[in-house]
Structure formats: structure tokens, C-alpha cells
Q: What sequence folds into this?
């Protein structure tokens, strides 16, 4: 075996490299941990496996915490640990191996003199490597060789030599490579043999719990949500967390700083620009800057933005090198959030004015390849509203503006669209935005212009194109919505009929992807039929929507239709059926967690109506408040009329007859009157007059109104009876026979009116039989209100014989027949501050069951101003709810 030649130049001495330059001792020093360091036990435990496998790879991005992790772990080990920072790899393989041998010597593992040393910087004798490996293989305990910054080893020859020594050394050496990139080693063989320990970038990321501990070490104590948000933004990147924590220490509000800091103005930007961006070639830097405008990208999209064809190679390399480019699968990549943020800022400085053009290119590429959400975002960023609107209409996605899932996002996105350009797509989108806010007049103006433009293309070469068909189908949808908002059944029928032809022309795939469009069309049609009093026809289409499937995009519409079906049952007098459907609408909406459910709003109104019939007035008030104050509640005639009816009945039940009259007299603006809305509001008004001792006015009101409806016939009979017209009352009730499916909420009242008429006529046996029938029918539905309203003649009867048994347990005689029992409050607390005039005006609006929007319109102020007055009034009256505020104000004589 060749021995070291003592006559060689000094370059071969143990303290110099082959070039004769002294070894840099810093290359052998184990890096010092930072002053604030968190040992992460899960990583240390995993790293312990390095003692059992020949090769260990700690592979992560710059600043991922690789070196500090391995350094802390290595310092705690018993045994020989050789450390080398591979910054000498570019000086040739001879120099590299000279440093490896010196690292072993400093670790107390001196190769035998026969091993020799490299004598040339650019080459190493294979025999030297063989002797080195053989010497290591003879050791009783393995030496741990850590090579940090191994990503600097780009010479395949060094990689081959290292793999040769590792194989030759056998159990005598454990090699740990700390690197940013995957090394040039046959890793697949080690993986197949289970002979490698790997800690990758994803595992190096801090968990929320670890991040919280690290921040605590920096004397920053944040909520779990704040820590989680920071971890999401940094993706658990160690350097990002540490640099953010150091910067936040100097802030007066660290939590706010960590939520809002601009990454491009921090040392994080300096780190990433120096350690990642500037290490790349000019072509790669250009690609990264342009990709920064995208949340995700594929090679084809990247090529479209850079105007070249080498994106796939560059992106694959960046991901392999842990250069803050993540692979999402299926050919798509994304930038680390902080890196993207910094690159965008750098793009604006280096290439001013390019960003909007990149957004436009991205939008048009994405539109061609079917990525709607991203198309819209980039088109909006480029102010290319023609592209954005065209994409939304072509994709048949405009219905999503009304489904609750993306409604607010789409409305916010298109809020930046100005008056130009003007084409069918942009007009349709503008109309949708206006109609979604129930601004019918402006919405119809936009819709009419779009419809005229589309009609002008009939017979053209593009007449049967999918794009034109999608626009016409969208137009029909908005026409149906406009019909619903204006209470126009004929218009809705025409719109749905007009939708049939374009439905056959658009691709079936789009209809399957957007079931909400068909569901919305039928829901709007059903609503207008309901408004027209065509309950059977309405029930047919509304049930079709409810049974149409479980797609998330139709959930809100299905719940809305459930609410309308519940309203039909209530109007027909079936509170139990109505309650079941309304509960389903409200319950489903709450489970889905949407910001507001149309069905839940209408469902709450129906539940409030049922609660009034059951004399559960506090519950009715709470449900009514929830429905009235629901954000974004639709103001179509059905909902407005239902709210007026329920509010009026609740006010009647509380004995607030004047307020009930005002509510019933508030008009609902619609293209045509609704028979049930007129009948029920007239019934409320007549009941208020009757309670105020004006039966003749009640009779006249119902004679002039739609007295053919059962609810009006019962009300008119009550009024006639109060004027002494017993025969007329019975005759009115006999007309109810022509109405079919009338439920107990109406028939019980009718039976009680007949019972009273029988008593007036002296037929007490019939009277008792009719009251018993009413009790039996009402008990199944817990209908107490009809008995409270019947009058004082009833209560002595309920204390007798079989009637007492029928009323026991659910109907308590002796309560006031004009409303719920008064609460014995001896002295209401005084008002500490006097209410302003405006605050009293707002309270008067509350007393009339007006919504905040209606009060604002009535007083010519903003909704926010009304809410401020409400908050002040609540504070001064020491209450928390609208009903309590009205009650307290009346007790104190303020209303």
C-alpha cells in the first residue's frame, strides 16, 4: 500500500489543502444555535434513525431550519461526529476530499497513514478512496459524517466518489447530507432497500403548536387563531416565523403587525431575494416574477406569460431545488405565499406597467381552458370586464350570484366594473348585480338592453352558437327573477318558456355543472304562482326543486322553496305541516352555514306565524326579529306580504291594534294584486277594528275586499256576529264548503264562530258540540290563539263537563282574551338619559314592525344611522331586543 511521500510539497501536509492553502477551520465548525431556539422533539426523534441507516437526507428550502436541527442533534450525540460545510466543493474533487479527511481527523477519526491525501485539487486517486472506505469499515463504532450545504456539490464525479466510499465503509460510517436540493446520488436504491432516513421540506415546517412555542420564546403571546393565520401565511417556514417574530418584538401591537405586515418591506424580503431569487438565472428570475401574479400555474400557462417554451423544465427544477415552488399535482405549481408577495412587489419595481398585461394574458388563457374563478379574478385585476362578464355568462355561472356560496365574492368582484364596455354579457352581469340587490328599476333597464341586443342576433351566423345560447338562457333566468321581484306571474311563465330553446343548445356538461340555474328558474316561477294564489301550480314546481338533488349550489334555492311550501300550508290553515317544512328550511340553512338563507328567512316567518297561533308570543317575536333583520333578505312581494301578515297577527295578539292596522295598511308594490295577501291583510285589519269596538267597519272592510277566501269569510262572520247579524254570519261560514283543503287554523275559528252563533240562538247543545269539535281539532296542533280571540262567552263553557277535560293540560282558561297575560313589573327602571327625537322616531318604526331598511327609507337616513340610534335607544332603555325596547318605551309613556 502506498505511503505518504515525505518529500511532497507542503500542500500535502495535514493542515493544508492540495493547493497548499491552509484549511479554513470554519468549514469544520458545528454551527451555533441562534439565541432563541426551539428543539422540536418530533424531528429529533426522526433524526435518531440516522444512526441506523447508511444515508440520511435532510432536504429543505433555504431557512427551513435544516442546519440548526442537525447541529443541535449532533452536539448531543456520544461518539465521533465529523462536520463539513461543503463550500469547497467548487474547488475540485481533490480539495473536497482533503477537507473530508481533515473533518475526520478533527473528529478524532484519523485515517491510517496508508490512506494518503489528495495531491491535486482537481482529482483524487481512486486507491485513496478505497483505502479510506476500507479503513472506516474496520471501525467498531461508526463515525457520523455530516456534510452541510451539500447542494453546493454539483460535480457528478464527487457524488459518485462519495457514494463509492459510503458503500465501501459499510457500517463504519453514517452519512448525513444537509441540502436544499436532491443530491446526485442513486437515492432510489437506498429507498428500495430501506437504507435511508429522509426529512423533507414539508416535515421541517412548523406546526401551529410549535409556532406558538417559538413565538412564546420571543415573548409574543398570541391567540391560536392568530398563530394559525401566521403559519398559513408562512407555511410553517422557520426563517419566516423567526424573522416575523423578531420584527414584531419592536411593535406596540405585535398581533396586528403579524396579521398585516407587508412581506416586501421586511428582512424576509432581503433573505428570499438574496438566498433564492438572485441565485437563479436571468430566464428563471423572469419566469418567477411573472408567475407571482398567479395563485397557481402550469407550464403551458407559464409559457403564455413568459413568451417562451421552457417553463416545464424550469419549474420542475425549482421544485426539485426547494426554491419555494410547490408542486400541487396534475402539472400545477404554486409559489410560497411570502415569496409570491415579495416577487409581486419586485415585479412592479423592475417591470412597471407589466402586471395588468400579465393579468389579461392569464385571464384569456384561463378562459380558454375552463378555469372560471381564476379567469374572473385575473380579468378583474386587468380591468378586462368584457372578458370577465363573457366568461361568467358563457359558463352559465351567473346563477351563482344568487346561491349564497359565492354571491358576495361575485358581487364584490363586479362592483369595480364601470359603465363601459356595453355588450350583452356585461349588461347581463350588471342586471344580475342590480337584481341581487333588489334594485328592480335599474336591473330591468340593463336587462332590457341585453335582451334587445340578443334579439338582434337572431338569424345571424352565430344564432345557434353555445355562447349565444348561454347568454339567452341567462337572460331568461334574470327575466324570471325580475318577474318574481315585481310579482308578475305572466312574465315568469314567458321567461321559463323562452328558456327551453337555449337549454337544448348549450352543452349538456354546463347544465350538469350548474344545476342552480334550472333550480332558480323554477323557484322564481313557483314564487310568482304563489303570489298569484295558484297554490297547486306553485306547489308542483316548488316540490320539483326541493326534490331535485343535493348539489351544494342548489341548497339555498331548495331551502327557499321549502319556506314557500311552508307558507302555502300556513295560508291553507295547516300549521303542523307548515312547521315541519319551515323547520326543515331553517335547520338545513343553519347546518350549511351560509351567510343568509332565503328559505330560513321565510321559514322563520312561518314559524313565527305558527307560534302566534299557539299563543307563544315571545317565541314568535324572536323568530320575527330574526326574519326581519336577516341580512340580504329578498324583498319580493311574497316575503313582504308574509311579513306584514305575521307582524299584524302578532300585534293583534299583544293587543296593539293600532299598530296592527298600520302594518296591514302598508302596501306591497307588485304588478298584480295577490288574492291571499289581500285576504289576510284585510283579515288583520278587520280583526283590529273589531277589537277596537268597530264591528261595522270590519264588516264593510271585508265586504269590499276578497271575502271569498276562507280567512275572510271567518273574519266577516265574526264581525257580523258582533253587529247582531247571526244569520248573516252563518251564511258566510256556509260558503266555506266550496273550498277544499282548509286546515284547522281556519276551521277551528269557524267552529267557534258557529258555536257562538248557536249560543246566541239558544241552541246550547249545538254550541257545546261545536266547541268540543274545535277543542279536539285544535289540540292536535296546539292552537290556543283562536280560543283567546273568541271572547268572554267561551271561558265559562270551558270549565264545564267534557269541555273542561278536552281543554285540560294544553289550554289554560282564565287568561286574557285580548292578548298574553300582563307581566307584573311593579316599576319599570327609569330612563337615565332622555331619548332624542330621532331615537323616538326609530322606536315608532320598531313599534310598527318595520325593518331597519324600511325605517331608514322612511326617515331618509342611512341604515347605519338607524342602527346607531337603535344602539343608543337600547342602552338608554336598558334592553337588548326590539320588542323589549317597544314594551319599555310604552310603559314609560315615550310612545
A:
Amino acid at each position: 500500500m502506498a505511503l505518504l511521500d515525505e518529500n511532497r510539497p507542503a500542500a500535502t501536509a495535514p493542515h493544508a489543502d492540495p493547493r497548499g492553502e491552509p484549511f479554513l477551520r470554519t468549514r469544520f465548525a458545528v454551527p451555533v444555535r441562534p439565541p432563541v431556539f426551539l428543539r422540536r422533539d418530533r424531528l429529533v426523534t426522526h433524526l435518531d434513525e440516522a444512526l441506523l441507516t447508511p444515508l440520511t437526507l435532510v432536504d429543505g428550502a433555504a431557512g427551513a431550519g435544516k442546519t440548526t436541527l442537525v447541529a443541535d442533534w449532533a452536539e448531543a450525540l456520544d461518539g465521533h461526529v465529523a462536520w463539513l460545510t461543503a463550500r469547497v466543493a467548487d474547488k475540485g474533487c481533490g480539495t473536497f476530499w482533503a477537507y473530508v479527511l481533515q473533518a475526520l481527523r478533527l473528529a478524532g477519526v484519523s485515517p491510517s497513514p496508508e490512506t494518503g491525501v489528495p495531491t491535486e485539487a482537481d482529482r483524487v486517486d481512486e486507491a485513496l478512496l478505497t483505502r479510506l472506505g476500507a479503513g472506516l469499515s474496520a471501525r467498531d463504532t461508526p463515525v457520523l459524517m455530516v456534510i452541510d450545504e451539500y447542494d453546493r456539490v454539483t460535480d457528478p464525479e464527487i457524488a459518485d466518489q462519495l457514494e463509492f466510499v459510503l458503500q465501501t465503509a459499510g457500517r463504519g460510517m453514517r452519512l448525513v447530507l444537509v441540502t436544499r436540493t436532491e443530491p446526485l446520488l442513486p437515492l432510489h436504491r437506498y429507498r428500495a432497500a430501506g437504507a435511508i432516513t429522509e426529512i423533507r421540506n414539508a416535515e421541517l415546517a412548523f406546526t401551529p403548536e410549535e409556532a406558538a412555542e417559538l413565538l412564546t420564546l420571543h415573548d409574543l403571546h398570541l391567540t391560536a387563531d392568530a398563530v394559525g393565520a401566521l403559519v398559513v401565511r408562512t407555511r410553517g417556514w422557520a426563517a419566516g416565523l423567526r424573522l416575523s417574530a423578531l420584527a414584531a418584538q419592536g411593535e406596540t401591537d405585535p398581533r396586528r403587525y403579524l396579521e398585516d405586515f407587508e412581506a416586501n418591506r421586511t428582512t424576509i424580503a432581503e433573505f428570499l431575494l438574496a438566498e433564492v431569487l438572485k441565485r437563479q438565472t436571468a430566464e428563471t428570475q423572469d419566469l418567477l416574477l411573472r408567475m407571482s401574479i398567479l395563485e397557481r400555474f402550469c407550464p403551458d400557462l407559464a409559457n403564455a406569460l413568459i413568451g417562451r417554451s421552457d417553463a416545464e423544465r424550469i419549474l420542475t427544477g425549482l421544485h426539485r431545488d426547494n426554491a419555494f415552488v410547490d408542486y400541487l399535482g396534475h402539472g400545477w405549481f404554486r409559489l410560497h405565499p411570502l415569496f409570491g408577495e415579495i416577487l409581486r412587489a419586485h415585479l412592479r419595481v423592475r417591470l412597471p406597467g407589466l402586471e395588468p398585461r400579465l393579468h389579461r394574458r392569464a385571464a384569456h388563457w384561463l378562459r380558454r381552458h375552463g378555469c372560471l374563478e381564476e379567469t374572473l379574478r385575473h380579468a378583474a385585476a386587468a380591468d378586462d370586464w368584457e372578458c370577465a362578464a363573457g366568461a361568467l355568462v358563457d359558463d352559465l355561472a351567473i346563477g351563482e350570484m344568487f346561491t349564497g356560496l359565492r354571491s358576495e365574492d361575485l358581487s364584490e368582484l363586479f362592483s369595480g366594473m364601470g359603465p363601459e364596455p356595453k355588450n350583452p354579457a356585461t349588461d347581463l352581469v350588471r342586471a344580475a348585480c342590480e337584481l341581487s340587490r333588489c334594485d328592480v328599476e335599474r336591473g330591468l333597464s340593463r336587462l332590457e338592453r341585453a335582451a334587445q341586443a340578443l334579439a338582434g342576433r337572431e338569424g345571424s351566423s352565430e344564432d345557434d352558437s353555445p355562447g349565444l345560447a348561454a347568454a339567452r338562457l341567462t337572460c331568461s333566468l334574470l327575466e324570471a327573477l325580475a318577474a318574481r321581484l315585481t310579482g308578475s306571474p305572466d312574465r315568469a311563465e314567458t321567461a321559463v318558456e323562452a328558456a327551453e330553446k337555449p337549454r337544448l343548445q348549450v352543452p349538456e356538461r354546463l347544465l350538469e355543472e350548474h344545476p342552480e340555474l334550472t333550480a332558480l328558474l323554477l323557484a322564481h316561477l313557483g314564487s310568482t304562482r304563489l303570489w298569484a294564489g295558484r297554490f297547486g301550480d306553485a306547489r308542483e314546481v316548488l316540490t320539483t326543486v326541493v326534490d331535485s338533488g343535493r348539489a351544494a349550489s342548489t341548497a339555498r334555492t331548495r331551502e327557499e322553496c321549502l319556506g314557500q311550501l311552508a307558507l302555502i300550508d300556513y295560508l291553507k290553515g295547516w300549521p303542523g305541516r307548515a312547521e315541519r317544512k319551515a323547520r326543515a328550511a331553517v335547520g338545513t340553512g343553519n347546518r350549511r352555514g351560509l351567510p343568509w338563507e332565503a328559505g330560513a328567512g321565510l321559514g322563520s316567518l312561518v314559524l313565527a306565524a305558527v307560534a302566534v297561533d299557539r299563543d307563544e308570543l315571545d317565541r314568535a317575536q324572536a323568530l320575527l326579529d330574526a326574519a326581519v333583520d336577516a341580512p340580504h333578505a329578498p324583498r319580493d312581494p311574497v316575503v313582504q306580504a308574509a311579513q306584514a301578515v305575521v307582524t299584524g297577527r302578532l300585534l293583534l295578539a299583544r293587543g296593539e291594534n293600532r299598530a296592527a292596522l298600520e302594518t296591514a295598511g302598508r302596501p306591497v308594490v307588485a304588478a298584480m294584486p295577490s288574492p291571499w295577501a289581500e285576504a289576510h291583510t284585510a283579515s288583520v285589519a278587520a280583526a283590529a277594528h273589531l277589537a277596537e269596538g268597530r264591528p261595522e267597519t270590519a264588516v264593510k272592510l271585508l265586504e269590499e275586499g276578497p271575502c271569498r277566501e276562507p280567512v275572510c269569510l271567518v273574519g266577516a262572520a265574526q264581525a257580523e256576529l258582533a253587529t247582531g247579524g247571526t244569520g248573516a254570519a252563518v251564511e258566510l261560514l256556509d260558503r266555506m264548503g266550496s273550498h277544499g283543503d282548509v286546515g284547522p287554523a281556519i276551521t277551528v275559528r269557524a267552529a267557534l264562530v258557529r258555536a257562538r252563533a248557536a249560543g246566541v240562538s239558544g241552541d246550547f247543545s249545538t254550541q257545546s258540540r261545536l266547541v268540543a269539535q274545535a277543542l279536539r281539532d285544535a289540540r292536535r296542533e296546539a292552537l290556543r290563539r283562536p280560543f283567546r280571540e273568541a271572547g268572554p262567552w267561551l271561558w265559562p263553557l270551558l270549565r264545564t263537563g267534557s269541555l273542561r277535560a278536552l281543554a285540560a293540560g294544553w289550554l289554560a282558561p282564565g287568561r286574557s282574551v285580548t292578548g298574553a297575560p300582563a307581566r307584573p313589573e311593579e316599576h319599570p327602571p327609569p330612563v337615565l338619559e332622555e331619548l332624542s327625537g330621532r331615537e323616538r322616531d326609530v322606536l315608532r318604526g320598531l313599534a310598527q314592525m318595520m325593518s331597519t331598511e324600511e325605517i331608514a327609507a322612511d326617515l331618509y337616513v342611512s341604515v347605519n344611522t338607524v342602527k346607531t340610534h337603535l344602539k343608543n335607544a337600547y342602552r338608554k332603555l336598558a334592553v337588548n331586543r326590539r320588542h323589549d325596547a317597544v314594551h319599555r318605551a310604552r310603559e314609560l309613556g315615550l310612545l
About this structure: The chain is about 60% helix and 5% strand. Confidence is low (pLDDT under 50) at residues 1-13, 591-599, 813-832. The first strand starts at residue 55 and ends at 59.
